[in-house]
Each structure stands twice: as C-alpha cells, then as structure tokens.
Design a protein that fits this description.
Blueprint: E1 4-5, H1 8-27, E2 34-40, H2 44-59, E3 63-69, H3 75-86, E4 93-96, H4 106-111, H5 124-132, H6 140-151, E5 160-164, H7 171-179, E6 188-192, H8 199-203, E7 208-211, E8 229-232, E9 236-239, E10 246-249, H9 254-257, E11 263-264, H10 271-293
Parallel strand pairs: 1-11, 2-3, 2-4, 5-6, 5-7, 7-8, 8-11
Antiparallel strand pairs: 9-10
Helix pairs in contact: 1-10, 2-10, 6-10
The protein binds NADP nicotinamide-adenine-dinucleotide phosphate.
C-alpha cells in the first residue's frame, strides 16, 4: 500500500481562492483587512513565521505591520500598546507571536487583546465559545487541520482519534472541535500528554493520529495501526552541515511510516501553510465583522 502525502500547500492554494474573493469584495467597500503582529525578543522560528506571514498578507493585498519589542520591554508597555491597537481601526486583527520570552505572563498579555480582534482565537471568550460549540475565531492550526481533513475527504464521524499534545494552541482546541456534534467532529477523541502512560496503547487504536509535541521523530511505525491517517503538526529544527545549518523534521518519523499509514502530512509543507492561511481567513473574517459592527474604539 502506498501512503498518500497530504499536501498542505495544495489545500492552502484551494482555500485562498475563496479568501481572495472575500478580500476583493471588502476592497469594493474601501476596506483592507489589517493585521498587527507583536514580536517580542528574537526567537528565530518566530521571526521566520512573521516573515512568511508578511509575504502571504502582502501577496493577498492585505495590510500587516509587525511591532517589535525587545526582551527588556516591560509587560505594561506591551499591554498598553495592545490596548491602543484594540481601538485602532487600521487593524482588524492582532496577533501576539508565541512563545513569549519566559519573563512575561503570556496569559495576561493574550487576555489584553480585544476578543473582536483575536484572530488567533486565544482569548478566553473565544476559547469558551469554541468549547460551547459556537466558535467565533477558531485557532489557526486546528482550523487548518479541519480544512485539510475536509479537502482530502477524511471523515471524522465515529472514528477513534488520538491527539498527542495538550497545548492551548493545538491539542486542546483540536480535542474540543473533533469531539463536538458537527460534521467535522463526532469522533471519539483521546488526548495524550507527557504524563500519559504507555502512549502506544492509545496510538495503536487510532484511525486518525494528530501529533503536536515538538519532539523530533517521537512517533514511529511500531506505535501505529495499519492504514492510520496522520497529521504531523511538529516543526523541529535538526542541526546539519548544510549552509543553513539545520533542516526541519516533524514529530513523526516520516520514512518509517511509509507503506503503513494510509496518509500523512509532510514537514515542511503539511500543516504549516494552512496555519498561515487560516490567519489570513480569520483576519478577513475580523474585517467583515468590523464592517457590520463598526469601530470598537
Ligand atoms: P507545547 O505547548 O510545547 O506543548 C507540547 C505538548 O506535548 C504538551 O502538552 C506536552 O505535555 C506534550 N509532550 C511533550 N513531550 C511529550 C512526550 N514525550 N510524550 C507525550 N507528550 C509530550 O507545543 P505546541 O505549541 O502545541 O507545539 C507542538 C509542536 O507543533 C512544536 O513542534 C511546534 O513548533 C509545532 N507547531 C506547528 C504549527 C504549524 O503550523 N505546523 C503550529 C503550532 C505548533 P505536557 O502538557 O504534559 O507538558
């Protein structure tokens, strides 16, 4: 059996057609979706993500500006700045790039973003609405994964889905979405983490396995049921002798699962392009909502 590669770039291209139409229709109303990004410190992966995001937004005629803060900035300085952005109508969305340097209280800073501009879906009001089954902004990576499953017609109803990783940005919202009573949910979902005993006993029962851990190659063929569909969210830098000095791998040992899994997302080129596409989607949605709601300043 040949393992199918789930191409995130192909899905992103498909989704962007519809998003572009929405951007054009907003342009006809003299509205350009705008995103403010807050970057604190100098995490190399965060800088790459911000640069890629800027490219995608510019390509789609949206406005984005990155506001950089040094690690020495105070929490108050950042929160005061976010509060000013909350009432600035140029920006329909605000993103705080994670992870923040350790000295900052991440929750406090995320909670200062207006729920109307919370295009990452991390504000407690938006996570509450998601758990309630009435989501407003769905966090970008879980939303991207749902779109990918839909595009490749991988059904979730009545499936056993195992997620490894319980972060607020991937594992927990993914758990909540997939277990809900709607077309892309209705699964029986198990959420594993670092304190789970004998993870293999769960992963071996998975029809769909979603891995968001951040440990290179932690899942291999021995942990899987044949024909499983795998979503590998992990992005890990492994040092090498190339000019760049590293290459990227996922949390799943890609080569070992070939011929065993039914399908898998590659790293890079799987979930990553969908996360940025969903950020564009959520920013356009925030701009549309602004259009009907008006300024919150
Ligand atoms: P995170 O906040 O660091 O959470 C990692 C999760 O993995 C935690 O729940 C942790 O358990 C669990 N874990 C760690 N070691 C484990 C082990 N040995 N066995 C089982 N569970 C283990 O990570 P994240 O922000 O969700 O990101 C995870 C990975 O996805 C990273 O590589 C990140 O770069 C990548 N990512 C990619 C995208 C994308 O667009 N492709 C988006 C977001 C994240 P505890 O809770 O018990 O500590």
């Amino acid at each position: 059996m040949k393992t199918k590669i789930l191409d995130g770039n192909e899905v992103a291209k498909f989704l962007k057609k519809n998003i572009s139409e929405q951007i054009s229709s907003l342009k006809n109303k003299n509205l350009i979706p705008g995103l403010a990004a807050i970057l604190v410190g100098s995490n190399p992966a965060s800088r790459v993500y911000i640069k890629n995001k800027e490219k995608v937004f510019l390509k789609h005629n949206c406005f984005t500006k990155t506001f950089k803060f040094s690690e020495d900035s105070s929490e108050k300085e950042i929160i005061d700045f976010i509060e000013r952005l909350n009432s600035d109508d140029t920006y329909h969305g605000i993103l705080v790039q994670l992870p923040l340097p350790k000295k900052f209280n991440t929750k406090k800073i995320l909670h200062s973003v207006s729920p109307y501009k919370d295009v990452d879906g991390f504000h407690p009001l938006n996570s509450g609405l998601l758990i309630e089954g009435n989501p407003n902004f769905i966090p970008c990576t879980p939303k991207g994964i749902l779109e990918l499953l839909n595009y490749y017609n991988i059904k979730t109803t009545s499936k056993n889905i195992v997620i490894i990783g319980r972060s607020n940005i991937v594992g927990k919202p993914m758990f909540s979405l997939l277990s809900q009573n709607f077309e892309f949910g209705n699964a029986t979902v198990t959420l594993c983490h670092s304190k789970t005993k004998n993870i293999s006993s769960f992963t071996k029962k998975a029809d769909i396995l979603i891995v968001a851990v951040g440990v290179p190659n932690m899942v291999d063929a021995k942990m899987l049921k044949k024909d499983v569909d795998i979503i590998d969210v992990g992005i890990n830098r492994v040092n090498d002798n190339t000019k760049k000095g590293y290459h990227l791998v996922g949390d799943v040992n890609f080569n070992t699962v070939m011929g065993i899994a039914n399908s898998i997302t590659p790293v890079p080129g799987g979930v990553g392009p969908l996360t940025i596409t969903m950020l564009l989607h959520n920013t356009v949605k925030a701009c549309r909502l602004f259009c009907t709601r008006g300024s919150i300043g």
